[in-house]
């Protein structure tokens, strides 16, 4: 009896121990459950055998006890992340779920207090960003770009004192940038581009980030002045394009900036002020875009010192009338846009020295003279439209056009032989130009000639049809008339029958020339037709109207 009782206890204890080992309280279970519930792409050959530390994208601590890194990007995961999955990975430090189709986060994800690196970019997560994001006190990198977040940027961001990278680009965040961001003094990179942010930058914005190297606020409606960025002395890349910033651009050219994009704002003032900014080292500059502002004066930047410049865009400003700036010393230039900058004179032939130039746009100016040969080997985009250029387009340039991505010579006074170009291309890319090709090689004239030939053929066909119809009617008319005359000969009138008195008798009207006939008119004519008639030659003349 006692043996049976203790034996039952032993069996129960073993079973309990067995089931306890199978409880879902391990990192292995949480990860496996997460991937399976999120619809892991069936085409992915994911191996769940062995320890979770050996699974693809998983990283454990040195003792192989806890999962500290999970990378599940581009696995086709979709839907809402369920609770009691990744939110239970207590020691997790790095989480990468980018490039999936996740629509919502679990409520327990904000309990991951050890998280240092969070990447949820390129998903479909919507709604507001909870204030719980402030729980990630150790967070160094957060990337939520390319989602559908909306509402305000939570003020609790002020708690992320260790934050170095903040990327919220490509969402629908609204209102102004919270002042609490000024506490994140460890920031090195900030990207808030392509949102719906408005208002002005918090006071002291520039001085708050001594380590900031990259700042992107493009495509918002943020107000501010150039002085807001004056104290960002570590900044190397600044993009505030497509906003509502005002003032002079002089305050921007500070420190070690390599990339500057101030395009599509409301900056104004004389651009020459930038030239006399002695504190800025132009040799650092690689990318400069000041297009679509209200800058005035002449283009007199220290271009001779910008030996490393690759991208230059000054288009659509209010510069004074000036000749083409000297840019031949910028041997590293790849992109040049001087569209609508009031340029006059000739396009300098020295521009061909820029061997790696990819894009050249000098459209909508008052340039005159001939187009140089432009022997730039890397040239792929060329726009010289809306100028006063004249003369022949160099043959060497025409030969390169089929290899280009885009070109436009329209609205000039140019001449070219458009052999090899379709009529459509000639009309769109060379509108207003003269085609000097002979007719046999002129696509426009060939098209016109082809249309003319079609019309001529139709006209000829109609004319021939009309002529044939008229000829048929005339032949029919003449035939009917001949039959009518024969009937008159065969059936003499009653008057004529009254004058016939014998085989050789003849009387006639003296008013006709037949009356003067003396001999031949009296010769009888015998017609072998029933009934037989005795008719003279004079009778035939009279019957046929002479």
Provide a compact summary of the structure.
The chain crosses the membrane at residues 458-480. It contains eight helices and 34 strands.
Keywords:
single chain, 546 residues, alpha/beta, 16-stranded mixed β-sheet, eight-stranded parallel β-sheet, 8 helices, 34 strands, extended
Question: Could you characterize the architecture of this molecule?
Answer:
By secondary structure, the protein is α/β, with parallel strands linked by helices. Among the domains are: 34-42 and 56-113, no CATH class; 452-490; 492-546, no CATH class. The chain has eight helices and 34 strands. The strands form five sheets. It has a 16-stranded mixed β-sheet with strand order 1-2-4-6-8-10-12-14-16-18-20-22-24-26-28-30, with no helix packed on it. Mean pLDDT is 82; it is low at 9-23, 439-454, 483-523 and 525-532.
Provide the β-strand percentage band: 15-25%
Strand tally: 34
Q: Are there runs of 5+ residues with pLDDT below 50, and where?
A: 9-23, 439-454, 483-523, 525-532
Strand order of the largest sheet: 1-2-4-6-8-10-12-14-16-18-20-22-24-26-28-30
Sheet having the most strands:
16 strands, mixed
The DSSP helix count reads 8
State Rg.
Answer: 48 Å
Q: What's the overall geometry?
A: extended
Helical coverage, percent range: 10-25%
Overall mean pLDDT stands at: 82
GO molecular function, one term: ATP binding
GO cellular component, one term: membrane
Organism: Gossypium raimondii (Peruvian cotton)
Family: Belongs to the RLP family.
């Amino acid at each position: 009896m006692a043996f049976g009782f203790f034996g039952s206890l032993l069996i129960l204890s073993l079973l309990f121990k067995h089931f306890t080992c199978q409880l879902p309280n391990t990192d292995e279970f949480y990860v496996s459950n997460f991937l399976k519930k999120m619809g892991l792409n069936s085409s992915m050959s994911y191996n769940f055998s062995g320890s979770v530390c050996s699974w693809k994208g998983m990283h454990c601590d040195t003792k192989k006890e806890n999962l500290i890194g999970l990378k599940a990007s581009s696995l086709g995961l979709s839907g809402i992340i369920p609770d009691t999955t990744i939110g239970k990975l207590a020691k997790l430090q790095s989480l990468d779920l980018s490039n999936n189709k996740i629509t919502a986060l679990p409520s327990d994800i904000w309990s991951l207090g050890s998280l240092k690196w969070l990447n949820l970019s390129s998903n479909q997560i919507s709604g507001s960003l909870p204030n719980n994001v402030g729980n990630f006190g150790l967070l160094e990198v957060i990337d939520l770009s390319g989602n559908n977040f909306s509402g305000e940027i939570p003020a609790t961001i002020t708690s992320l004192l260790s934050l170095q990278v903040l990327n919220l680009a490509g969402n629908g965040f609204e209102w102004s940038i919270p002042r609490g961001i000024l506490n994140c003094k460890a920031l090195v990179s900030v990207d808030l581009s392509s949102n719906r942010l408005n208002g002005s930058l918090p006071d002291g914005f520039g001085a708050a980030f001594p380590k900031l190297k990259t700042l992107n606020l493009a495509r918002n409606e943020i107000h501010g002045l150039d002085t807001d960025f004056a104290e960002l002395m570590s900044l190397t890349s600044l993009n505030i394009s497509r906003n509502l910033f005002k003032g002079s651009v002089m305050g921007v050219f500070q420190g070690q900036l390599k990339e500057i994009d101030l395009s599509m704002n409301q900056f104004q003032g004389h651009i020459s002020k930038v030239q006399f900014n002695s504190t800025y080292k132009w040799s650092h500059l690689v990318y400069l875009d000041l297009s679509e502002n209200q800058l005035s004066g002449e283009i007199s930047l220290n271009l001779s010192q910008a030996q490393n410049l690759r991208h230059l865009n000054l288009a659509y400003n209010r510069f004074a009338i000036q000749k083409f700036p000297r840019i031949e010393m910028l041997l590293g230039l790849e992109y040049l846009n001087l569209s609508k900058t009031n340029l006059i004179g000739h396009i300098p032939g020295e521009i061909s020295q820029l061997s790696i130039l990819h894009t050249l746009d000098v459209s909508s100016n008052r340039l005159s003279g001939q187009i140089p040969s432009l022997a730039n080997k890397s040239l792929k985009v060329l726009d010289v439209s809306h100028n006063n250029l004249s003369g022949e387009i160099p043959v060497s340039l025409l030969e390169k056009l089929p290899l280009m991505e885009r070109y436009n010579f329209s609205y000039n006074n140019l001449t070219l032989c458009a052999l090899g170009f379709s009529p459509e291309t000639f009309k769109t890319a060379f509108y207003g130009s003269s085609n000097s090709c002979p007719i046999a090689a002129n696509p426009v004239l060939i098209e016109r000639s082809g249309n003319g030939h079609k019309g001529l053929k139709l006209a000829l066909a109609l004319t021939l049809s009309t002529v044939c119809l008229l000829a048929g009617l005339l032949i029919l008319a003449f035939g009917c008339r001949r039959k009518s005359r024969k009937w008159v000969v065969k059936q003499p009138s009653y008057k004529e029958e009254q004058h016939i008195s014998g085989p050789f008798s003849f009387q006639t009207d003296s008013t006709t020339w037949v009356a003067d006939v003396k001999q031949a008119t009296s010769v009888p004519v015998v017609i072998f037709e029933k009934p037989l008639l005795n008719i003279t030659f004079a009778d035939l003349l009279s019957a046929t109207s002479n």
